[in-house]
Amino acid sequence: CFSSADSLIDPSSRDDEKGFGNVFAELESVDLPLGTTLRSVYDDQPNAHKRFMEKLEVRIRNHDREIEKMCNFHHQGFVDAITELLKVRADAEKLMGQVTDTNRRLQDAGREVTAQTEEVIRCRIQQRNMTTTVERLQLCIPVLEMYSKLKEQLESKRYYAALKTMEQLEKVYIPRVSRYRFCQIMAENLPKLREDIKDISMSDLKDFLESIRKHSDKIGETAMKQAQQHRTFNSVVQKHDSGMGYTKPVYSLNGRTPTQHNGLAAEEGVLTAQDLVDFSPVYRCLHIYTVLGDRETFENYYRKQRKKQARLVLQPQSNMQETVEGYRRYFNQIVGFFLVEDHVLHSTQGLLTRAFTDELWNMALSKITAVLRTHSSYCSDPDLVLQLKNLIVIFADTLQGYGYPVNRLFDLLFEIRDQYNETLLKKWALVFREIFELDNYSPIPVETEEEYKSVISRFPFHDAEIEKQDFPKKLPMSQSVPQIYVQVKEFIYASLKFSESLHRSWTEIDDMLRKSTNLLLTRTLSGCLQNLIKKPHIGLTELVQIIINTTHLEQACKYLEDFITNITNVSPETVHTTRLYGLSTFKDARHAAEGEIYTKLNQKIDEFIQLADYDWGMPESDGQASGYLMDLINFLRSTFQVFTHLPGKVAQTACMSACKHLSTSLMQMLLDSELKQISMGAVQQFNLDVIQCECKWT
Fold first, then answer.
1. CA nearest 526: which of 459, 593, 586?
2. In sequence order, what are the residues at sequence separation of 6 or more whose Cβ sits closer than 8 angstroms to the Cβ of residue 540?
3. For the CA atoms of 214, 215, 219, 222, what is the dihedral angle to 10 degrees?
4. How many angstroms from the chain centroid is the CA of residue 49?
5. b/e burial code for range 584-618 (CB count within 10 A of at least 16 → b)
6. Where does residue 554 fall: left (phi above 0), alpha (psi -120 to 50 degrees), or beta otherwise?
7. Considering the entire predicted model, what is its pTM?
8. 559, 612 Cβ separation under 8 angstroms
9. Predicted confidence (pLDDT) per residue in 436-463, tens digit
């Protein structure tokens, strides 16, 4: 039936159906979109949709026929299935009742299980939360403990440890729990704590710098006392040595003690800087700034402050030169300052450098030498100058023991030595003047052997003729001679005191002693003798005694040479040995005294001549010499008896000078222009006077 119907379709219809076949295939496919397919039908040809609808109706009818055919084929099976279904409906209803009952019982039983399950779930959630909380607390507790430790360290001022704790917090602990707010607060607070630590440590450092100014004097005093003890010990040791070798000190304030002799340091106990000063603020501040990466700022600040303090320490008191204690305090402060610097230099790494301390010391050395040069120039007391010299030596030795160069200080001591010699010369000038003023200018009487030995123990006098004489007897010189000799030796001792401890050879010391002694003889003693000779109250007897005294002092000069040689052990035959100029000094003084004798003798003759009262008109002479002339002759006789103690040439010259001056004066009397006439009696009287003079001197 269907096949016959298909045969009745015209060919054009077949072509349309063939053309729309693809469209139908696409429409029957469930995977392709219909919009595009339907659009192609309407867009293809005019009236194509009409033909398409017709073909679609045909297509639907064909499918309906196929469905009907299939239903007819399966209809019997469907009927059988319905029959079977009806049979099982009763069983299904019964089963449905059973299932419903079972479901009800199951629901009743499940409610309790569900409740218990929910409780288990809730407990599991709580357990998981607790586990998570414990885990988080285990992470947070170390952070809190470290922060608590940090607070304790800050309260106990253990700032360096606190910085280490901060570093651990930042790098290890806080990153583990950084998502928690309290950790963020901690992290934000740490930089502020660092700044607080910097401020506190800097405040401690400022307190230390202020404190060290007060302790510098004590540190320096202790170090210089130890240096003085070492010097005393060395002076004992050097009594057995011939040289003046310099040994380094045994004292130490920084623990770097040189080799110790005979257990001295072990017996006395050597102080260290830490015994006197707490340096922990410096170390703490240095470590803190190093950890914080700001070490350079700290170093610059410390050095700048110490330079300021150095300038204050080097500023002397206005009246420092008045007492030795002023100088001692000045030196103590400087020694204390530089011993602290030396300790910091060796106990820290890089805070101070050797170049910095050398620069600071050179600056200080220039200031010290200028101050000492200025203030010592005001000292007129040799004892004070000597004490100053000893302080400078101890000061130099103390600092030299710590590596500071002190050559310029010893050069300064040579300048002060010249000043010391000047003060000695002034002091001994007063001593010499006092000796001359108290001298009686008469030979020394000795009553016993003890008195004689007492004199020759003070003055090298040897005379065989006098030694043979019985006691009592007289020595030719006056009391001032042994006193002058003793004082010259005392001057040599005083000059030697300054030359000691200058680390110079004995040859140099010998040269210094001889030069200073020469100054004493040629300038001071010579000046005193010249002034003495010129004094109006010094008569002929005193001048004669002065000549005798200078002769014996001149002879004693060789003993002064030997005295210096015994002190220094330097042979006088050494090429560069300076000779004493005492011979020329006493010769000049003696020549001056001789000249003064001649002058005073002539003045005395003039005084007697002025007493002459000749009557030039007298008729005849008195028959005897004039009274004034007899007095003059008696004076000259007694005076010439005193001259017997003088060397023969001097006495002879004095007599010749006196006679010549007398004859000249008598001649001038006759040739006086005011004398108009002379009687024969006056000539005879004058002749008697001249004859009297001739008789007395023949």
1. 586
2. 597, 600, 601, 604, 639, 642
3. 90
4. 119
5. ebbeebbebbbebbbebbbebbeebbeebebebeb
6. alpha
7. 0.65
8. no
9. 999 988 888 988 888 888 888 888 888 8
The span from the CA of 334 to the CA of 221, in Å, is 10
Please, are residues 254 and 402 in contact by the beta-carbon 8 Å criterion? Answer: yes
Token pair, residue 420, equals 């010391």
d(CA 599, CA 601): 5
Range of weakest confidence among 27-36, 143-152, 534-543, 681-690: 27-36
3-state secondary structure of 474: strand
Q: Which residue has the tokens 């050179």?
A: 362
C-alpha distances (whole Å) from 12 to each of 8, 17, 444 are 12, 9, 190
The pLDDT value recorded for residue 578 is 64
pLDDT tens, residue by residue, 386-432: 888 888 888 888 888 888 898 888 888 888 888 888 889 999 999 99
DSSP assignment of 48-114, as one string? HHHHHHHHHHHHHHHHHHHHHHHHHHHHHHHHHHHHHHHHHHHHHHHHHHHHHHHHHHHHHHHHHHH
**Residue 444, strand partner residues:** 475
How far apart (Å, rounded) are the C-alpha atoms in residues 410 and 61? 142
What tokens were used for 287?
């470590």
Token couple for 500: 């000691």
Structure-token pair, residue 279:
């340096």
